[in-house]
Amino acid sequence: MGDSKGAATGQVFTTSEMIAYQEGSVVSRTLIDKKIGTITVFAFDEGQGLSEHTAPFDAFVQIVDGEAEVVISGDEHVLKAGQMVIMPANQPHAVRARKRFKMLLVMIRA
Description:
Blueprint: E1 26-34, E2 37-44, E3 49-53, E4 59-72, E5 75-80, E6 84-87, E7 93-108
Antiparallel strand pairs: 1-2, 2-7, 3-7, 4-5, 4-6, 4-7
């Protein structure tokens, strides 16, 4: 699907079909990687996550399957398929799979 860089340019697809779950793992696939930003899909197996960290840019997250716990500056949010949140730049955040889930991450660097 797509060009040699892994993008799905010019093709119709669903976000969920772009990546498969792997037992005990977090898997990612970058769809667009440009100087001004990235679009990446992730699949988290139940119990997996990304530990607390910060990023110098706002990050938009949309859950496309399953259920995630997103903590932003100590505030816990439970997101389900179809829901989204913007994680503000320079604010600590973490993501954990309450149930396995897939998400679309859009980070704008400009």
